[in-house]
Amino acid sequence: MSLDRRTFLKTLGVVGLSLTVGDVLASEDKKEKSIEFYGVLYDSSRCVGCQTCENMCAMANDVHAPDGKPKTGLVRKTDEGHRTVINSYNTSKGEVFIKKQCMHCNDPACVSACLTKAMYKTKEGPVIWRGEKCMGCRYCMVSCPFDIPKFEYFSSNPKIEKCTMCFDKIQTGKAPACTQDCPAQALKFGTRRELLKEAHKRIVEHPEIYVDEIYGEQVAGGTAFLYLSPVPFNELGENTSLQNKSYPELSKGFLYSVPSVFVLIPPILLGIYEATKNNKNKENDENE
Amino acid sequence: MKTNNINIPISKDNDGESIFKFLMHELKPKGKIFTPFNIISVPIILIGIYLIIVRFIFGIGSVTNLTQEVPWGLWIGFDVVTGVAFAGGAYVLTFMVYILNMKKYHSIVRITVLNGFLAYVFYAGALLLDLGRPWHVINPIIGNSFGVSSVLFLVAWHFLLYMIAQLIEFSPAVAEWLGARRAHKILSGMTIAAVIFGITLSMLHQSGLGALYLMAKDKIHPLWYSEFIPILFLVSSIFAGLSMVIFEGTISHKVFFNQISEKNLKAEKGILLGLAKICAGTMFAYFFMQLLVFIHGKHWDLLSTPMGHWFLLEMLGFVILPMLLFIISYRLNKILLIRIASVLTMLGVIMNRLNVTVIGFRWDAPIRYYPTLMELVVTLTVIFTEIWIFRWVVNRMPVLRESPSWAKKEK
Q: Quick one: B45-403 is in which CATH superfamily?
């Protein structure tokens, strides 16, 4: 395959470059080369709403077992005790289920918001929370367009709760708990690239089942969780007005202006100060 | 010119031996104990302290109405975001007095810097109450947990650095109080550097407070969200701060009347007229920017909604109206009108900050956030405690009164 040869050449190039040019370039290339984000493909046309994923998640992560069943008209939410929920929606094609959990954005708003690097995008893809760094400011919650991080408001030592894509399992080569025993095979774990390919394949092969959109491919700059659906996503309670640019882009302009202000403003102020200094004597004469 | 205030001993020129005695003496309350302010503030502060203890034992949710959708409420939206806007007077006045060398405003610089400094200490300090895990507050400052891509990281650092800058700006007054001549000389020499640094920091974090909300694009009502929030926050902090200076000056002149020299009492009118002009000018610029943002946002349809009416009220009633009052007041030399306009302006700034941070935040949520009475009491506790410290300092250090003669000679 030509792709293999290209990858091979690229690797060669990277090695050569990093040996000759140095750290900066090499680390930039490494991102492209070796980091392959994991992800989960969720197919809501297959999901039967059995809540196996919810139960598996609760067991694996030691959080609360699901309270209640998905019911049309009732929107259950993830909270500090529930990292994932299945909801049921009455759509143009009858009852359709949809799973909700952290989307694990490629460029997450919560991570860029975090001033202590407690929210952290691992190189494997999962976005995790690290309690030893977090100061509980909840800026991640303000920033997350999906409203995912949840805070323990009734604790003197509160944690931020959210899906971690079972990062501990991924590190040992296992799949996230929710994907393991899905009886309808609605959840599939893999690298994001493979899953996207798979999702496109399903749409092409069964255009009668799916709408031609993968939620998560573009939204918020792309996410690790990818959704297939038989109906438009706004019928499933997803916010379809979210931007396709990543959210950290929104504050980038401001952050980029900071060094310029720091470099430009003090000398200007100093200049004005020096220029107006001479008035001092004049004013003093009048006052004294 | 000699004034009667110079004769009031601030501190005997101590040589270091009597300093402990002097401090112990100064710690004691001065003046009447049963003033209306004390009678109101003390019970509230006591209840507030109790609530703060409850909050640390049972969690933030036991005192506040915050939800998973609205994680920042009154304590951030009012105490921090609005409080810091009102503290903007310090950087504007230090710019005018030290950089532009406008001697006219020199007599109010110290009290404004003190006010600004205490506002930062207390309102930014109120942030600690809102932190779930405040024992980790040091993480972004020291250690290896620098989230440099965060606007909040920038704001946190700027708060810290600006507090230090303001402390340096104010420190000559402390040195005069303690009679520390050598320290006074050194600290006075650092003023300009602190001022330049402080203005730069202020520009960045006043706008940074707005930039915090840039990522909440889908959560804030479109009439208040735009990519220009940072600039709007910066411009409005100028007249917010100056209105606070006018308002605070009005009260200080009544409460601390006996400390102010005749010369400065006479100068007050000129100062207020000058500040009114600056307020009017910046408010016009601010309104014009809001107008541009509104037109480019293409939200005409939203004006007929309740939130649209609220927006119009903010813009017309609390930006345009006080701006016109400021213009009229300096045309007609009406000081009372300036004071009224400053109060209206402050109300407008409170409205604006709360609209971005609380009222317009998740305006479409089925369950709206509204603060509990307990949140309000804690906020009042913070404000009252600040006023107590403010009063304590003004009654002891040469803030409003003239500096001791030795300090004046130094210049």
A: Formate dehydrogenase/DMSO reductase domain (1.20.1630.10)
